[in-house]
Write a structure and sequence with these properties.
Layout: E1 9-13, H1 24-34, H2 46-54, E2 60-64, H3 72-81, E3 88-90
Parallel strand pairs: 1-2, 2-3
Length: about 140
């Protein structure tokens, strides 16, 4: 049997984690006043940008956001402008808790000598960035 990959999938929120928090109304205002340059009004959090750059290239990054999909162009321009790497983005999510459920890999399926947990959750302080030291 082929061994399963141990490459990770990172689910990372955009507002309050990668860039300073903005709600949909604030994004509408920025787009209304700045047009297609509205992405320049976003404030990236340097600590988070550095963290994302440190994620191995073979890992997958899924960005999550409560931003309405009507802000997709603005958001994609912002991510491109700040060179924020990602593989997929989920828009239109609820602002409440995000819950991830995953199975435990049994012994040997990924070259592991003991059962391997495959789900983690870390809450970060809003607008403070991702603390590298908090990860397993």
């Amino acid at each position: 049997m082929e061994q399963e990959s141990l490459n990770k999938t990172w689910f990372i929120d955009i507002d309050g984690t990668i860039v300073k928090t903005r709600n949909n109304e604030q994004l509408d205002e920025a787009i209304g006043s700045m047009g297609n340059k509205s992405y320049l009004s976003e404030e990236p959090i340097k600590k988070s940008l550095d963290f994302i750059k440190s994620i191995p290239i073979n890992d997958t990054i899924v960005l999550t956001t409560a931003r309405d999909s009507r802000h997709e162009d603005h958001t994609l321009q912002m991510l491109n402008h700040f060179k924020i790497r990602y593989d997929k983005i989920l828009f239109d999510l609820r602002s409440g808790a995000r819950i991830l459920i995953n199975d435990i890999k049994p012994i040997g399926i990924a070259g592991n000598s003991e059962p391997l947990k495959t789900a983690y959750a870390i809450n970060v302080e809003r607008n403070k960035g991702i603390p590298v030291e908090s990860f397993p």
